[in-house]
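Students often ask why we bother encoding 3D structure as a string. The short answer is that it lets us treat folding as translation between two languages. Here is a chain of 452 residues written in the first language.
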Amino acid sequence: MPAWTDSLPEAAKAYLEGRRLDEVECVVSDLPGIARGKAVPASKFARQDYFHLPDSVFYQTITGDWGEAAGDDGFIEKDMVLRPDMSTATAAPWTGDWTLQVIHDAFDSAGEPIPFSPRNVLKRVVELYTAKGWTPVVAPEMEFFLVARNTDPLQEIKPMMGRSGRPAAARQAYSMTAVDEFGPVIDDIYDFAEAQGFEIDGITQEGGAGQLEINLVHGDPIKLADEVFYFKRLIREAALRHDCYATFMAKPIANEPGSSMHVHHSILDTATGKNIFSGPDGEETDAFHHFIGGLQSHLPAAIAVLAPYVNSYRRYVKDHAAPINLSWAKDNRTTGIRVPLSGPSARRVENRLAGMDCNPYLGIAASLACGYLGMVEKLQPSPEFKGDAYAADEDIPRVMGDALDLFDNSNALHQVLGEDFARVYSIVKRAEYDEFLQVISPWEREHLLLNV
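And here it is in the second language, the structure alphabet:
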């Protein structure tokens, strides 16, 4: 192997041991979380310190169009400088040759971070924590569906066919038999993850038909967001090997639960390494309550980031394993903000509002931003909720337009995430929302065509 590969992470070295590296995929996450970039021969990658992409990749909508009014000087598509973060180098084990993926960071021509690059947004938030002497720790949970191939958008999405020859069954949460139905796909997920050096904390069957959950071990927010970014591609590739699709839509199948990306948070004192959510005697601290208060106060404005598409809001349905409000409680999965059972050193706060369709960098950044604001502003949460939170009032936006209005009016959130990011994000999401509003749905044709 060439000399530059000596600096690779151990998993990447092991993957290439005794083999000739053919290609390197140089990638960056766009706003939806799609990998954009270039594939280059390994010999060329060894000679390049950076490559260029136009900044328009961050103005691209999920449909491939672009948001208008890219900047004060118009939409001129400036070149960005993309530099590799070699700590992210990992295998692409589904390819036909020996290929590595490397995540790149985006800079302008003066060397400043591009403010609307999702990875840079998360880095900005983490740096705010660092400046306070805090080290944020997160643990994301990834829910997704394995579904039958769907090549016609006019057809409903259906569960995949399991090993038994029957469609995947619903309402079989935590069933090992249900997990076994997807055994070949799961085997490939494990194999790909091992080749990439990712540690899976567990895989379980969730409540939906063909719905699975993968838990990741807690750690650094940027590293975990990188892993979720990689995992989405990994899981899709594993599914395609077995004639099915993996989808991370928030609500792919009517009358089934949606898919979330629950995020667990704890904050360490950087100097001591101790969890600031617990005091010397294991008691809950002011920082713990302020973090929850920040989530309750600022999450309504952040919902547009945690639930980035019109489909996202279909997930927030009573009694379907998704929250409908911002109540908080201990060991209560009906609330939007949950405190899992744990000892003092592992005390953490779980944000249950993010959908699996959100960009992992932006979802984690927005959630951490809300908690940060709570601690800085010393916000107090409401009293702990007792009982079934589905019986309480809804207090989160139910449609994309309302969520974007709240986001646009949140100066506090813009200050933490970055004003340029907030501007660009709103441009792109409003372009997507406007495009959606031009589509006439089957429901409208069925019920309005001859009746109104």
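Translate back mentally: Residues 286-306 form the longest helix (21 residues). Keep this in mind for the problem set.
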